[in-house]
Amino acid sequence: MKKKEEERKTQIMKAAYNVVSELGYDNVTLQNIADNAGVSKGVVHYYFNSKQNILLELLDSITNQIYKYELEAIAQQQTAITKLKAYLEAVFVSPQKNRKFYSVYLDFLAQANGNADYKRINMNFYENCWGIGNEIIELGKKEGVFSKEIDTLTNAKMMRALIDGSLIQWLTSNEKELHQFYKESCINSILNLLQYSKE
User: Fold this and answer.
1) Which of 15, 23, 84, 174 allows an S-S link to 27, with CB 3.0 to 4.6 Å?
2) Range(s) of the domain holding residue 39
3) What is the three-class DSSP state of 174?
């Protein structure tokens, strides 16, 4: 029974993700979510007591999934440079997935000012991202490929700023074919930031 309920909740969350990406946060209704999930509005109400409740859980879920995916990608690599490249491959996963996530994520960020829960989830996501950056930078310092003089946490934060800035700029350019250009430019910018040296 519990497995069935978890599957139904997941189905509703996927539907919420779809409709927020299509209609925008403000325009989504419980009926939209129910229709996309192929269930009645009453079923949605059974699992979630409000639209706000669904969307809060959705933001928490998608940011955690992305973090785990990125973490798994770097765990499979041994050196700082291969970890960095794996991280960027995991972040720039595909034009379709990036467009969907950032369309939804930017909508959530627009709500964050007046919502302490959204702020908390977003800060947790960024702290996780900075943790990945910290790991890569510290390893690179030990290997001698990144400057030992740079501050690790500051540069981990700037690394993620370059990633999100690149993807947001790509998204607003509305040119799908530039996805690869932004990914390569982002990697090069991060390497410059960390004062990459092959010696």
Assistant:
1) 23
2) 1-49
3) coil
